[in-house]
Design goal:
Helix 1 packs antiparallel against helix 2. This protein has a two-stranded antiparallel sheet with strand order 1-2. The chain has two helices and two strands, in the order ααββ. It has one domain. It is mainly α.
C-alpha cells in the first residue's frame, strides 16, 4: 500500500515539527521520525489501526498526542 498525505496534513506535520523543535531541540526531528515509522507500519500492514471510512486507517503515535 502506498501512503500519501493530504497537502493540509503535510503542512500541519511541518508546523507541528517546528513547534516541537522550538520547545526542545531535536524533538521536532523525533516527531518526524515517529510519523515516518507509523506510516511505514501502516504501509506494510495495511489491516492494522482503526478503520476510518472505506480506505483510511488511523493509528496512534508513540510519545506524541497524534494519530
Amino acid at each position: 500500500m502506498k501512503a500519501a498525505f493530504h497537502p493540509d496534513a503535510s503542512e500541519e506535520l511541518l508546523e507541528t515539527a517546528a513547534y516541537y523543535e522550538e520547545q526542545i531541540p531535536g524533538l521536532g526531528e523525533r516527531f518526524i521520525i515517529e510519523v515516518e515509522r507509523v506510516v511505514g507500519v501502516l504501509s506494510d500492514q495495511s489491516e492494522i489501526g482503526q478503520k476510518v471510512g472505506e480506505i483510511y486507517r488511523r493509528i496512534l503515535l508513540v510519545r506524541f498526542p497524534f494519530h
